[in-house]
Design brief:
By secondary structure, the chain is mostly beta strands. 31% of the residues are buried.
């Protein structure tokens, strides 16, 4: 189990995950509970539009976005809608195996997370998934070893994962080639989640 940490939204709300719920606090007071089908795994992620993404221990990824209210008067309806201060479950997708990292969002709204892969003739691997904001799995890529703690996403949409074998992998989910992954498996020296800053990986 990956212990969750609180995260803060652009409007100052604090999201705390515990048990099978995600609690949203506003001004230090519980504002809303988001219900999951299994215990939370890791730390939620928040997109620029306020959508909250959460993993559970069964490998299901959830999206909770703001609800819109629509009003009709005398047969005329406002289809633009007013944004509610509350969120509701938009979708949930079962990725197929137990999670290894918290979800993370990129600047384009795509969501990345890593999960248990399998064992191929004695070689343990994990799977890094890219999921679209509408809940459709875009692509998955295997990496050598089990991903550690968290992924990192660069401004140019590359996803970085470090694993318990010491491997650091860079995945380009949008490349047109058959192999869109680079790793340093021949020189393993990594033991913590990757950190991106100023164009470098730490």
């Amino acid at each position: 189990t990956l212990t969750p940490s609180p995260v803060v939204s652009n409007d100052g709300q604090v999201i705390v995950a515990a048990g099978s719920e995600g609690d949203i606090l506003a001004n230090g007071v519980l504002f809303q509970k988001l219900n999951l089908d299994a215990p939370v795994y890791g730390t939620p992620a928040i997109a620029a539009d306020g959508t909250i993404y959460v993993m559970d221990t069964a490998g299901k990824l959830y999206a909770f976005n703001y609800v819109k209210w629509f009003f009709c008067f005398g047969g005329s309806c406002n289809f633009t809608g007013l944004q509610s201060p509350c969120r509701a479950r938009r979708w949930a997708i079962n990725l197929g195996s137990a999670p290894l990292t918290s979800p993370i969002t990129g600047s384009d709204g795509m969501i990345a997370t890593a999960r248990v892969g399998g064992n191929f003739f004695g070689i343990v691997y994990s799977l890094v998934d890219m999921v679209r904001p509408d809940g459709v799995r875009f692509r998955e890529e295997p990496v050598h070893g089990n991903a550690i703690g968290a992924l990192a996403v660069s401004a140019d949409q590359k996803v970085y994962a470090s694993t318990d074998t010491g491997t650091l992998a860079r995945i380009d989910f949008f490349c047109g080639a058959s192999n869109c992954k680079i790793d340093d498996g021949s020189n393993p020296a990594n033991s913590t989640p990757p950190l991106l800053a100023f164009g470098s990986v730490y």
